[in-house]
């Protein structure tokens, strides 16, 4: 067997574009890297023209190339056909396509390459930019490369960058065995846009923050559109600022020069009336905002952590939100590789369609019974209400060294699935985080060892099939979906518990 050639990296496909890092962009790269290394599925990043997809795709490839073979292709209308796409993918991975004349031969070669990577415990990632240019047959063929036996962090993986609409197109193919994680390109804030302009467009650095904010509002946060608007501002030499620009001169003057009012096309009385009206609106807004803050401020109630989780976290100190944020952000400097030997900590939670832990063990005949959650649409899958289903493992009383959560997971059928929503090596941050979760009674906490280090993992829900677990993800709140909850077989969870 020929060892896959792993000499190429993303730098061979770099467009030479400078990258501007923001916390939201860094978080997106972190989430995608985690899914590629420890999860399963297809990350799809969607954004409009000028939003920065290509910048982020290039930076993602640069970070992943530390621990994986990375290929990157940028599609155009003329090479979005299947054969051209497959040849581009093979060449981006330094694979020879000599003698391969059909799409079938190219697909077989890539599948064989993926199996070799799995056997060698290696990972290859193909980043497809402008993936929305794929026709239906090309899209289906690429997705077929991701089907089959799954190995976390091994084999051939893909990431799509596209304009909005690609996820809906993938959903129409109804490939239930491929989890699709959809992300949106993070938009820059007005403050970040100001810094971006100062760093990369020195000729426009003289624009004030107010002018930058105006361009940001007109562009709806789209970076490319904002730059074009600022260039238009620069071209007219400030004339575009209109009345607001001239009024600023009067506000900053120590003595009002009434003769200069002749330069204003609007009558003076109208201008003064507008100023008074604006001050009045501002005062009403501030009063209303203060009242809403006092009325709708959330109560600060201390809710204890479930006793079953205290079994694992007993004796640990609860830390403040500031300390958690500090620990979560450490070693996440722009430009540093995200994929490392230690998995990237995900401090998020989700609310899958899972029911609470059952009470005393019911008869095995109740395994097929399904209890829908009232707040969840009926079309969404629900979790299994069974404490000791057929095929589960039972421990003798008095001899168990596991917590109640761990024992519950061990008692489930190894063929079932769950959703992993959190993994942390720091029990301090974990205990404080769980205290704030509204669905903590539905979460299961267990301990595991990874590379000799103790880790704390939180999963949610028990599902009959992987498809049911995947189908539950879209029902989660948007923010939690972006964190990347992913389905895991209970067989792998039980192995980690037993190994610990």
Descriptive notes:
The structure is a single chain. This protein is α/β, with parallel strands linked by helices. The protein folds into three domains: 175 residues, 3-Layer(aba) Sandwich (Rossmann fold), CATH 3.40.50; 32 residues; 193 residues, Alpha-Beta Plaits (2-Layer Sandwich), CATH 3.30.70.1070. 40% of the residues lie in helices and 13% in strands. The strands form two sheets. A five-stranded parallel β-sheet has the order 2-3-4-1-5, sandwiched between helices. Strands 6, 7, 8, 9 and 10 form a five-stranded antiparallel β-sheet that branches. α3 packs parallel to α4, α8 packs across α9 and α13 packs across α15.
Q: Quick one: CATH class of the largest domain?
A: Alpha Beta
What is the fourth-level CATH superfamily of the largest domain? Sporulation related repeat
Largest sheet: 5 strands, parallel
Give the radius of gyration.
Answer: 28 Å
Q: Could you name the CATH topology of the largest domain?
A: Alpha-Beta Plaits
Topology:
Layout: H1 23-38, E1 42-46, H2 53-64, E2 69-74, H3 82-92, H4 103-119, E3 123-129, H5 136-144, E4 155-162, H6 166-172, E5 180-184, H7 190-200, H8 209-218, H9 223-235, H10 242-252, H11 268-296, H12 307-313, H13 321-329, E6 346-347, H14 404-411, E7 417-424, H15 427-435, E8 443-450, E9 453-463, H16 466-472, H17 478-482, E10 486-489, H18 490-499
Parallel strand pairs: 1-4, 1-5, 2-3, 3-4
Antiparallel strand pairs: 6-7, 7-9, 7-10, 8-9
Helix pairs in contact: 3-4, 3-5, 7-8, 8-9, 13-15
């Amino acid at each position: 067997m020929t060892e896959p050639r792993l000499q190429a990296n993303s730098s061979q496909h770099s467009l030479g574009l400078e990258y501007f890092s923001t916390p939201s962009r860094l978080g997106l790269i972190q989430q995608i890297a985690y899914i590629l290394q420890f999860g399963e599925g297809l990350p799809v990043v969607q954004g409009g023209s000028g939003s920065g997809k290509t910048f982020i795709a290039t930076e993602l490839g640069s970070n992943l190339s530390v621990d994986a073979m990375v290929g990157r292709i940028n599609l155009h209308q003329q090479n979005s056909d299947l054969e051209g796409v497959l040849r581009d993918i093979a060449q981006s991975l330094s694979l020879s396509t000599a003698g391969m004349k059909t799409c079938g031969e190219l697909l077989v070669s890539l599948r064989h390459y993926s199996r070799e990577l799995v056997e060698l415990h290696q990972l290859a990632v193909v980043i497809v930019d402008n993936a929305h240019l794929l026709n239906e047959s090309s899209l289906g063929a690429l997705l077929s490369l991701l089907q089959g036996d799954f190995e976390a962090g091994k084999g051939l993986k893909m990431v799509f960058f596209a304009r909005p609409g690609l996820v809906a197109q993938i959903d129409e193919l109804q490939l239930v065995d491929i989890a699709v994680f959809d992300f949106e390109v993070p938009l820059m804030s007005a403050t970040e846009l100001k810094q971006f302009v100062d760093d990369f467009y020195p000729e426009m650095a003289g624009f004030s923050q107010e002018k930058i904010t105006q361009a940001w509002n007109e562009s709806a946060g789209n970076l490319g559109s904002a730059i074009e608007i600022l260039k238009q501002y620069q071209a007219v030499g400030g004339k575009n600022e209109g009345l607001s620009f001239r009024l600023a001169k009067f506000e900053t003057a120590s003595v009002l020069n009434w003769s200069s009012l002749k330069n204003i096309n609007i009558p003076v009385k109208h201008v003064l009336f507008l100023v008074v009206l604006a001050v009045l609106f501002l005062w009403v807004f501030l009063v209303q905002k203060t009242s809403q803050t006092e009325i709708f401020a959330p109560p600060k109630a201390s809710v204890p952590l479930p006793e079953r989780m205290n079994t694992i976290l007993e004796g640990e100190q609860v830390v403040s939100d500031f300390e958690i944020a500090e620990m979560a952000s450490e070693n996440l400097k722009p430009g540093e590789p995200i994929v490392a030997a230690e998995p990237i900590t995900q401090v998020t939670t989700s609310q899958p369609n899972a029911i609470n832990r059952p009470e005393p063990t019911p008869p095995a005949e109740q395994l097929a019974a399904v209890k829908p959650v009232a707040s969840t649409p009926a079309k969404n899958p629900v979790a299994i209400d069974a404490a000791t289903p057929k095929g589960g493992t039972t421990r003798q009383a008095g001899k168990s060294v596991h917590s109640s959560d761990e024992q519950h997971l061990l008692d489930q059928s190894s063929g079932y699935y769950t959703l992993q929503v959190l993994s942390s090596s720091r029990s301090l941050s974990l205990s404080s985080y769980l205290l704030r979760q509204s669905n903590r009674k539905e979460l299961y906490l267990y301990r595991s060892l990874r590379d000799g280090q103790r880790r704390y993992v939180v999963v949610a829900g028990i599902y009959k099939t992987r498809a049911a677990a995947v189908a539950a993800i879209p029902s989660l709140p948007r923010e939690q979906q972006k964190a990347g909850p992913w389905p895991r077989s209970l067989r792998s969870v039980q192995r980690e518990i037993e190994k610990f």
